[in-house]
Design goal:
alpha+beta; Alpha-Beta Plaits; 2 domains; four-stranded antiparallel beta sheet; two-stranded antiparallel sheet; 7 helices; elongated
Length: 217
């Protein structure tokens, strides 16, 4: 493969990967401009390298696909590192997915399919920008942990569980702890805001709310 073709592919990769990186940068995501450029150009270079190897006299017919598969496997480890679990929910899935898509974009550019790469970039940008607005219009689920003070371990606790069931909420990490003459009942759940408010309003009168902690997903 001529060196000019490699340079052209790297330049296209720089532009298209940079466009996606800018969107990620403006969205304050951990994988921003430089990260996406490096991922895209790196994948492009690996694909171009496989093309150069393939033209060598000793090259095997499967070298092109073997290197591409290795690149995809490698980016999987980076994507897994960007996913974290905190507060009962998972963060970083979109970042990991974007890194995987940008890697695929780099491979497409490295293979020399510029029109396909441009169309793929448009699809990625449309997904990141347009669908974010659609997601904003959908009511979000969030995690919530609650601590209640109840006078009776059995009756009041059963009433709290029954109230949750009536609103379609499953309580998790339920803990009962004696404190002086009362019982502290702590639990967590995951639901939409309107269901959460209805559930908390429907708690039995004997249950006194001590603490509420919320986490947005």
């Amino acid at each position: 493969m001529p060196i000019t073709d490699v340079l052209i592919r790297l330049a296209v990769s720089l532009v298209l990967g940079g466009a996606i990186g800018l969107e990620r940068e403006f969205s304050n995501k951990p994988a921003g401009l430089r990260t996406n450029i490096l991922i895209c150009t790196g994948a492009t270079m690996m694909m171009a390298l496989s093309g150069m190897i393939l033209t060598a006299p000793s090259a095997g017919g499967s070298d092109l696909l073997r290197i591409a598969a290795g690149v995809i496997t490698g980016i999987g480890f980076m994507g897994a590192g960007s996913i974290i679990r905190a507060g009962g929910h998972v963060q970083g899935l979109t970042t990991a997915s974007t890194m995987w898509a940008v890697t695929a974009l780099g491979l497409v550019i490295g293979a020399g399919y510029y029109l396909v790469a441009a169309a793929f970039t448009a699809v990625i940008m449309f997904t990141l920008v347009a669908f974010r607005r659609l997601e904003a219009a959908v009511p979000k689920k969030r995690s919530c942990s609650v601590v209640l003070k109840i006078p009776d371990m059995n009756e009041a606790a059963d009433q709290v569980v029954a109230a949750a069931v009536s609103h379609g909420i499953r309580l998790e990490s339920v803990c009962l702890k004696r404190a002086d003459k009362t019982i502290l009942m702590s639990f967590a759940f995951f639901t939409r805001e309107n269901a959460e408010c209805a559930f908390l309003r429907g708690l039995p009168a004997a249950a006194e709310i001590v603490e509420i902690c919320r986490g947005q997903v």
